[in-house]
Amino acid sequence: MGNKHNSTGFKIRSPLSIFIVICLCCFFYILGAWQKSGFGKGDGIAVQMTKQTDCHIFPDLNFETHHNDVEIVEPSRPKAKVFKACDVKYTDYTPCQEQDRAMKFPRENMIYRERHCPPEEEKLHCLIPAPKGYTTPFPWPKGRDYVYYANVPHKSLTVEKAVQNWVQYQGDVFKFPGGGTMFPQGADAYIDELASVIPIADGSVRTALDTGCGVASWGAYLMKRKVLAMSFAPRDNH
């Protein structure tokens, strides 16, 4: 009995279900056709927005910030201060080692030999001029042995240190033969003696300190052996 009742109900509901499905299909078909025709509410809004919005093409876009209406001004570069040349009498002027000023200090404990820099009111605000006839120095290594006399127009060392063979005056140049108190045979020969007990040739020694030098010949001749020397000369009277 149960199977027969269920079979009858299935037959009754089947045509109704088919009818409902057909109606839904027709409804959605008509709805889709209506929206596609351009009369839908969504399409109408899109059309209205397109008409009301003006589109402009700008060839140049400005990406600067516009937080306010104040014009952006680029900061101006500070102008370089131009200094005039000092008087010719200052050609040999060395601010903290000026001889005339140093002689005004006490001789006690050799205070006058110390470094005395001028106070603010005595400072020069000009460019120290080059000696008259100044010439571009010789390139290295010739510049190690020769200096134009016009660049350092003082012959006192050629007289006072003539015995030590520091510097010689020849024509319009000074010649530095590499001599000195410690180098009667020349700086090169002295370095050769050092090399016999110190490994210089193999690069073990790369730097050297030269204190109490004269014209720094020892440091100059060490350069060709790839040793860099720092030379400190004492302050002298000449």
What report would you give on this structure?
One of its GO terms (cellular component) is trans-Golgi network. The protein has 238 residues and is mostly helical. Among the domains are: 88-122, no CATH class; 142-232, no CATH class. The chain contains seven helices and five strands, in the order ααααβαββαβαβ. The chain has helices at residues 2-39, 41-52, 99-102, 142-145, 156-160, 187-195, 217-222; strands spanning 146-148, 168-170, 173-175, 207-211, 228-232. α7 links the parallel β4 and β5 (228-232).
Secondary-structure element sequence?
HHHHEHEEHEHE
Q: Roughly what percent helix?
A: 25-40%
The chain-level mean pLDDT equals 81
The strand count comes to: 5
Shape: elongated
- Quaternary organization: single chain
Through-space gap between termini: 143 Å
Beta content comes to: 5-15%
Lateral arrangement of strands in the main beta sheet: 1-3-2
Alpha-beta content class: mainly alpha
What integer value in Å does the Rg equal? 49 Å
Q: Treating each run of at least 4 consecutive H or I residues as one helix, how many helices?
A: 7
Unreliable runs, pLDDT <50, ≥5 residues? none
Largest sheet: 3 strands, antiparallel
Subcellular location: Endomembrane system; Membrane
GO molecular function, one term: methyltransferase activity
GO biological process, one term: methylation
Membrane topology: Single-pass membrane protein; Single-pass type II membrane protein
